Automatic annotation (TrEMBL):
Primary enzyme class: transferase
Taxon lineage: Bacteria, Candidatus Gottesmaniibacteriota
One Pfam family recorded for the sequence: Glyco_transf_5
Keywords: Glycogen biosynthesis, Glycosyltransferase, Transferase
Gene: glgA
EC number(s) on file: 2.4.1.21
Protein name from the UniProt record: Glycogen synthase
Transmembrane among keywords: no
Pathway: Glycan biosynthesis; glycogen biosynthesis
Length: 482
């Protein structure tokens, strides 16, 4: 089977969020299982391409907003997976990421390149991701191409609403799209809603999230459209690149450790955790003690999703008198200021760092006893998987992918009902096992480290959906011949 995987970010060329990780790992896992796959990405000015050799594939013109725009297609190999990557270059629209024109133009350039045979690869399936590629299924139908599409929703909250004039720029009839009126009477197109309507199959990045978004509480205004597509909606849990599970990012961690076996210069996990905890406490100015439980939070300061207001309430309700906290992340300035003030009054118990530093994050994972994930909703989440690889038990709200990846009392702790008191109860339960039931805690840590989040299982699930698409394509062909 031949699949074109279309994204707007791809690690290590450009990484903004979790999609960059997925785009880097999933196509490689699919390729190992026999899928003939290519990746398509805009050629932004900010791409980091020094590590790869570029080859020019073709040049052609795309008509957009009444002008003929030259597009150059270059090809590189992903430096880790070796999956071929097509880079679409245009100085006006694809130099930087600007909604909506960058993505509308990119979507049209993809379809024109296929229709005009400007790439030799002939995809049977186009796998699109989130709003940025959301108009591709509409354009496929508009051009009459016999290509199947699957949409992966990584986060339903980011939808891409814009004026209906975008359809005029693309040369697409407004009758083919869903035009919605705003409260002010403006007529808008929603990129993600269009993708949901037009794609042949849809999946989210965890089974639980696929069920949650059918309800108004989690549907972000699209639950009605999603319920109409319920029979075509699936959930596949993301994986992670598990190469770190043996070496544990040794270059970032002061005392690298392994769970099983002995490697030169590596510690066993219990010794490594103990040494790293002492190291990070000293580095962060916290009271150095192996008898105080250390909780970490690593993530965005996003009150709409990440639960930072609930965590703030919990800290203010006395948790900082008993437990230590390291908080790493950046986001809303008002929330950064609240946490900065909290840390300044409790320097021995709370340490805050308002940046995102990959190396520091790895050291914090390796050093902490527990990771807090109080998210209001979580499509999948990767940090719980990373933390478990480091033997750090997640304490998380039972939503989305957190429900699918964490087994309460086995490799982490889950709580229901989104509130500071419930978060605190889960923390107290975790600390009770950590402090009073050492053998049970040890078993939980070892279960966490052994949990398999390899992309192979996820890739097999995607292949089953691809096979379903191709089977339906065969049936369409047969019915067309009758």
């Amino acid at each position: 089977m031949r699949v074109l995987f279309v994204v707007w970010e791809l690690d290590p060329f450009l990484k903004v969020g979790g999609l960059g990780d997925v785009a880097s790992s999933l196509p490689g896992a699919l390729r190992e299982l026999g899928v003939e796959i290519r990746i398509a990405l805009p050629y932004y000015r900010a791409l980091h391409l020094r590590m790869v050799r570029k080859y020019e594939v073709n040049k052609f013109h795309v008509t957009y907003d009444g002008r003929d725009e030259q597009v150059t297609i270059l090809r590189v190999a992903h430096p880790i997976t070796r999956v071929p990557v097509y880079l679409f270059k245009n100085n006006r629209y694809l130099n930087e990421s600007k909604f909506p024109d960058t993505y509308a133009f990119f979507n049209k350039a993809i379809i024109e390149a296929i229709k005009k045979r400007k790439i030799s690869f002939r995809p049977q399936i186009i796998h699109i991701n989130d709003l940025h590629t959301g108009l591709i299924p509409l354009l496929i139908k508009n051009y009459g191409l016999e290509i199947k599409t699957i949409l992966t929703i990584h986060n339903l909250s980011y939808q891409g609403e814009t004026n209906e004039i975008i359809l005029d720029k693309l040369g697409v009839s407004k009758a083919e799209a869903l035009i919605q009126k705003t409260k002010k009477g403006n007529r808008q197109v929603n990129f993600l809603a269009e993708a949901i309507r037009q794609s042949d199959l849809i999946n989210t990045v965890s089974p639980t999230y696929s069920r949650e978004i059918l309800k108004e509480k989690f549907g972000a205004g699209l639950d009605g459209i999603l319920r109409l597509r319920k029979k075509d909606l699936y959930g596949i849990l993301n994986g992670i690149d598990i190469s770190f599970s043996t070496l544990l990012h040794a270059k970032y961690v002061k005392y690298p450790f392994v769970y099983n076996g002995i490697l030169k210069h590596f510690y066993d996990w219990e010794t490594g955790k103990r040494y790293n905890k002492r190291f990070i406490q000293h580095r962060m100015g916290l009271k150095v003690s192996g008898n105080i439980p250390l909780f970490a939070y690593i993530g965005r300061f996003d009150p709409e999703q990440k639960g930072i207001e609930v965590m703030y309430q919990m800290l203010n309700q006395g948790a900082i008198k008993k437990y230590q906290f390291i908080i790493l992340g950046a986001g809303k300035e008002e929330w950064e200021e609240k946490y900065r003030l909290l840390c300044s009054f409790n320097p021995e118990m709370v340490s805050c760092h308002f940046v995102f530093d990959t190396g520091l994050a790895q050291q914090i994972y390796a050093s902490s006893d527990f990771l807090l994930i109080p998210s209001k909703y979580e499509p999948c989440g990767l940090i719980q998987m990373i933390a478990m690889g480091y033997g750090t038990l997640p304490v998380a709200h039972r939503v989305g992918g957190l429900s699918d990846s964490i087994k309460d009392g086995v490799n982490g702790f889950l709580y229901t009902n989104y509130s500071a008191p419930n978060l605190r109860k889960a923390m107290d339960r975790a600390v009770k096992i950590w402090s009073e039931r050492k053998e049970e805690y040890k078993k939980m840590v070892e279960a966490a480290i052994r949990t398999n989040f390899s992309w192979k299982k996820s890739a097999r699930d995607y292949i089953r959906l691809y096979e379903k698409l191709l089977a339906s394509s065969s049936k369409d062909g047969e019915s067309g011949q009758k």
